[in-house]
Amino acid sequence: MIRKKLLAMPALPATQQMIETAAQDRGSYKKLYGWQNYTTHVYDHDWYFRAVVQDGILKVAMYSRSQLVLGDTDPKLEIYINRKEEKYITWIPSEKRWSKARISYLDDKRWSTIADDWEEPGARQMVNDYLQNGEIRIYNAVDRFQSSLKNAKLARAHQSEKDRIDAVMDLVPDLPKDWEDWIYKSAYSRDMYLIYHPGEDRAYCTACGKETTRKNARHREKVTCPNCHKRVTALSWNKQKSLTDTKDIGILQKLKDGSGYCLTVYGSKICRNPKTDWKVDTTNSRWWKKSRHIINSDMKYVRKVYEYGDFKNTGEYRWCNQVQHGSYYYDGPSSECVLYHRNLKRLRKGTPLNYMPVEELFRHCEGWYSHVTDQLYALAARPELEYMIKAGLYSLAWDITRRGCPGNETVDWNQKKLWNSLRIRKDRIPMCVRMDITERQLKTLQKAEKLNINLTSGQIAWYSREFGPEISQEIWQYGHVEKTKAYIENKNIRGVDYIDYLHELKKLRIRPTEDVLYPRDFQAAHERTSQQLREKEEALEKKKVKEKDRILKGMLPELEELYLNTKADEYLMVLPTCKEDFNREGRENHNCVGGSYFDKMLRGDSVILFLRNREDPDKAFCTVEMDGSKVKQCRAIRNSEPPQEVKTFMEKYSREVARRIMKKQEHVRINVAI
Ligand SMILES: [Zn+2]
Questions:
Q1: 0.85 cut: is pTM over it?
Q2: Ligand 1 mean position to 359 CA, how many Å?
Q3: Which residue in 32, 194, 435, 643 could disulfide with 232, CB within 3.0 to 4.6 Å?
Q4: pLDDT in tens, 31-77
């Protein structure tokens, strides 16, 4: 639409009829219903409309009543619409400017009006014919046309975003045929059950899917399936109505255009119930899309993340760009899942993982969670892991990479030889492989090697499970490795209790002889050392208090000079002379003066005083905290407000103390001057 041509269209000034109608419009009082019923003055018409169509363009002119009664014939708005071109623009005569805004935004008075619009005879018909949207008021016809254009524009923008997303999604291959088989067999391999018939020698193993014999299992006990030898949880056949396990699972796939890889993460759940004899209930088991992580060919960089969900709150569920949740802590959907491993050998060709048998790693660690994109990064960034995996140290390689931190400190990456990187002796490698050593176990072994202790694989497993590397190292400094293990196991002692006991021995400086380290009655020995330690600590505390009391006594002469011997008939000020005075005041007056105030006074931060009735000078009455001459707190029993007489006295007292302090300072100044 050419603006010059629009302005050349027939002018539509207000007609005589409109001006007269507006002038005669006296309005009326109308009862309105809202939050509260009320009566208000309403004109017959607030807004007036004219329209014309010329050369395929509709021009609508809109006038306000307030304008017309002043005799102003200029329209308030002139709206030009080209329906074929799906365009509109508005001329605002009073401001001499164009606007692309919709009528509902330009006309701010509109929302409050309840009066009918005045429309020139024939104008409504003309507008409706032109805009082809049924029989409605001119204003509504324009508004509807304009918003439909806006919606169409939004839909076009949405479509182009969806097209861009789908272009990437189309590059992701279909799921492999054995996907579901993998879910049931591998993804959940750590959540398998041996469900036994109570009182019978029959059981069903969900890991191998076979009927087998029951091995005296207890409900919820971890057992080994006699058939497939997998670790499974024993469950009594009738003790649960159903079993549901959930897991996030994922698959890595090469994009069809070869530009990278896609990790798709799905949520999943597996249901079992006795109706299907605890086999997977396929009608209720499901998996659903959660997120997609597009990874570069180098396996290190995540290019883009998509989330499956409600597209821009339109109710359409589909792949969306990662939603910006505006939270500092949220950095997008997690890539943590159990990864499908059967395609990895093929996938790693041509990537930095070319020589690394990662499929072996994932197969051995089947059913375990890892942050897959981070783990791939760690694997790609550390080619040294190839030797670790090829040597068969799967659990270790897994522990080091599962959170994706290539700067792991357990291993020395600068070493060429595997044993040197693991910081252990060469001859320990076969044992590490045999036991498929974990990171925690390796750390325990490393500590032992430092102390020149030769651990067996059983000892490594036990110590790392019970105590972990740091505490194990501490224990070994006291006693014999195997003897200690046997002792703790036989006596059924909790690890933390034994450590406690060792710490007490150290603090008490008791020589750790055999009898001390492995007492016949551990609980009794532990209680004895605890008691001794308590006594020792109490004695120490007493000594400290005694020393502090001495310091307070040294401070008293000056404090007495400033704070005591005031002339009051009724009240008496008392200074505490030792820690016990604080405690007693706290007990009797039910406040916390027995806590930190003693130390506060010693530091000179405040002065604590006890206000007493002269008639009963030994009985607690008010507890006072002063800072110089300022009264910081004055509390009666249970921290209550003191009586008015006390407050009056305290004001007087404060002034008295201030005078004494000033006098003392003057005295000091004079002395210094002399
Ligand atoms: Zn089995």
A1: no
A2: 23
A3: 194
A4: 766 666 677 788 889 899 999 999 999 999 999 998 899 989 999 99
